[in-house]
Design brief:
The chain is an alpha/beta fold and 268 residues long. It has 10 helices and 8 strands. Strands 1-2-3-4-5-6-7-8 form an 8-stranded parallel barrel, surrounded by 6 helices.
């Protein structure tokens, strides 16, 4: 049995404190929070402590915060600046109670050896705050688009805290499939995002807004969940969609429908 989380991108246009309330009312036990939303709340005069209190008052967990970028392969002053930004985001993650923070890949060709070293550095930085940066592959980028690509970075970092963000959509559009989940240990999985993909357009042309609710697409999510079970993973699966049409709808209704579809797929 999995735990169910709402990635707050699914109801992106809703203010952060309302997102948290919606997730709890809809029946989730977790919510993934985006650093842009946390920072916007602070800029508007709020405090990170208010966010943490809201999460705690609603009885939720924060599986991850999203996302840390730009850290993978720049050098010199650019890398220093990227790590300074990463430090601020890791502090935010710790402040809202997240054990993991999502760390994304570069969108162009990747220098994998350099990225492995920088991921080790990022993991060392995260350890100062009790937060594990979790490497994320993206199916629609030039490189590092499959789970096996991500495993190369994770294993090459040679760090005990190295871990991965799983996502069936990225497995599908990146062409790597889902069977490599069997290579993982459960402690290597920070979170599994959860979503589906339509039959059309072709997988390699799909982008974030093409995602659909679990069970509404063509990904073999039953097999996906079976593989998670086989490796002993029973933590959070998190509904992650980026659909402008859903952002225009009632966020509570969207969240409730999403949870029902997740349960139907994962428990059916």
């Amino acid at each position: 049995m999995f735990k169910y989380s709402l990635n707050s991108s699914t109801i992106k246009t809703t203010p952060i404190l309302h997102k948290i309330a919606v997730a709890a009312e809809a029946g989730y036990t977790g919510i993934e929070l985006w650093h842009d939303d946390i920072s916007a709340h602070v800029v508007a005069g709020g405090a990170v402590e208010e966010i943490r209190k809201c999460v705690d008052d609603h009885g939720l967990k924060v599986p991850t915060t999203i996302h840390i970028h730009g850290w993978f392969q720049p050098a010199g002053e650019e890398h220093t600046a990227a790590m300074d930004t990463a430090k601020r985001k890791l502090e935010q993650a710790a402040a809202v109670g997240a054990p993991f923070a999502v760390a994304g890949p570069p969108h162009g060709k990747a220098d994998r050896k350099l990225g492995q070293r920088h991921y080790h550095e990022l993991l060392q930085l995260g350890a100062q705050f009790g937060v594990r940066p979790a490497f994320e592959y993206l199916g629609f980028i030039e490189d590092l688009k499959t789970l096996d690509d991500a495993l190369e970075i994770v294993e090459g970092s040679a760090h005990p805290n190295a871990c991965i963000v799983l996502d069936p959509f990225h497995c599908y559009v990146g062409g790597g499939g889902i069977e490599s989940i069997a290579k993982l240990r459960p402690e290597q999985v920070a979170v599994s995002h959860f979503n589906d993909a339509p039959a059309d357009p072709p997988p390699h042309t799909q982008r974030d807004p093409d995602r659909v609710m679990p069970g509404d697409g063509v990904i073999d999510l039953k097999r996906y969940c079976e593989l998670l079970g086989q490796i002993g993973y029973s933590d959070f699966v998190s509904l992650e969609l980026f659909r402008p049409d859903l952002w225009e709808q009632d966020p509570l209704e969207v969240a409730k429908i999403g949870l029902d579809k997740m349960r139907t797929v994962a428990e059916g």
